[in-house]
Write a structure and sequence with these properties.
419 residues; Rossmann fold; 7-stranded mixed beta sheet
């Protein structure tokens, strides 16, 4: 069986560091390319197969598929990451164009004629010179009518530069103002160095054919571009219950590129296109459990939800004792409803007899254990999967043990295998 010799690092983004193309965008919630390649090997996937990826994230599954000459399709609901993935899948870059861009930016970047306004968040995260250079590069790329492949390639290099020259770490997963970074290179120098590294990475593969396709799509909804029964396997890692607010994590970049400007726009333009994974995704006062129980998810999973409700009620009671009073009880119900919709779409695109591999983590909001992986396995049965298996990868949450109100429950990261 595939997971028998899996080591504890698989299931994290650690394996992707310093790995060509995979490390073009480091994402704290990513998972290991080694796991994807192990599944490809063990399942004996070949050019006749097609992988489906519900949550493309930073493109780990799609890049791994393309490196192995295997077709793959994926959905991503965040505009920022959608562009990141497109850039990571475009390997036939005209380097004459990118070299000319570097030369022209170098000539013009110190021009006294360049004026622009900066987002107030970024003002606090970069020194004056770097902030000006970052915005100059951004506007230069936007105003020079570049071919899409080269534009996205250069934009991804700039996105990486945003992470590398900030005063404080901006994606670990949130801004860490208690830590200060020292950067020897200017923003332009880092941008140039990053491009050189990306160019060198493309030299590690002689494959120019694009076998993976990404769609700007919410996986809770039907993607009409992907036909019924057209994929032979799914490899994905859904959002974990109460783990990260993905809109918040990416706000520096989304503000910089003008995708969002404030908290409200993060909710409207980013969070609403994503599976409900944090309490910031909804308004507590708008939730009505009786109306919620009229939805298809509850009607199709009544026994499962009714058995879950005692724990949901415990979370609600506990929330009233806590300072933050976070509505994790509502979050859990929305999360499983959203994942029900994701699993319906997953079942639709997979051929009969196919498998789905989902990297997942358990959760314990306010110290009440929610067996997320098992519950999703049971929900999968309600949408047409025949059976499921759970394989533990590693313990999770251990680095938070020192927190004052941290629970002592043992949580795990798992692979849910659906058939």
């Amino acid at each position: 069986m595939i997971i028998e010799d899996i080591h504890k690092d698989i299931g994290t983004a650690r394996d992707n560091r310093n790995t060509p193309i995979h490390d073009w965008y480091r994402f704290t919630a990513g998972f290991s390319f080694k796991l994807v390649e192990k599944i490809i090997l063990e399942e004996k996937l070949n050019q006749k197969d097609r992988i489906y990826e519900s949550f493309a994230g930073c493109g780990t599954t799609l890049v791994s598929a393309q490196k192995n000459d295997i077709k793959a399709v994926g959905n991503e609901g965040q505009e920022l990451l959608f562009d990141v993935i497109k850039a990571k899948l475009n390997w036939n870059i005209d380097f004459e164009i990118t070299n000319d861009v570097i030369s022209n930016i170098e000539k013009e970047i110190n021009s006294n004629h360049y004026k622009t306004s900066y987002h107030k968040l970024l003002v606090s995260l970069y020194n004056d010179d770097n902030l000006r250079q970052l915005y100059f590069i951004r506007d230069f790329l936007d105003n020079n009518d570049l071919p899409e492949k080269e534009y996205l390639f250069l934009k991804l290099a700039l996105t990486q530069t945003l992470h590398k020259v900030s005063i404080h770490p901006i994606a670990i997963p949130y801004i860490s103002r208690t830590k200060t970074l020292s950067n020897a290179l200017s923003a332009f120098e880092m941008f140039e160095q990053t491009l050189q590294k990306m160019t060198k990475d493309l030299g590690t593969t002689d494959k120019k054919e694009k076998t993976s396709q990404i769609y700007f799509q919410d996986s809770r909804e039907r993607n009409t571009a992907i036909e019924d029964n057209s994929c032979t396997i799914c490899i994905t890692s859904p959002p974990y219950l109460n783990n990260l607010d993905y809109g918040e994590v990416s706000k520096v970049c989304s503000h910089f590129y003008g995708i969002t400007n404030d908290w409200g726009e993060i909710t409207e333009k980013v969070r609403k296109k994503l599976v409900t994974g944090a309490t910031t995704h909804y308004k507590k006062r708008e939730f009505d459990v009786d109306l919620w129980k009229q939805q298809d998810f509850y009607l199709q999973n009544k026994i499962l939800v009714d058995n879950l409700m005692p724990d949901i009620n415990k979370i609600e009671i506990e929330s009233k004792k806590r300072k933050g009073k976070k509505s994790f009880h509502i979050l859990a119900l929305y999360y499983f409803e959203d994942m029900y919709k994701v699993l319906i779409e997953m079942r639709r695109v997979l051929k009969a007899g196919s498998k789905a591999y989902l990297v997942l983590g358990d959760s314990a909001p306010y110290g009440v254990f929610i067996d997320t992986t098992k519950l999703l396995g049971e929900i999968a049965l309600s949408v047409g999967f025949n059976n499921y298996k759970i394989i533990k990868i590693r313990d999770r949450g251990t680095k938070w043990k020192s927190l004052r109100f941290r629970h002592s429950l043992q949580l795990s990261e798992n692979i849910l295998i659906l058939e």
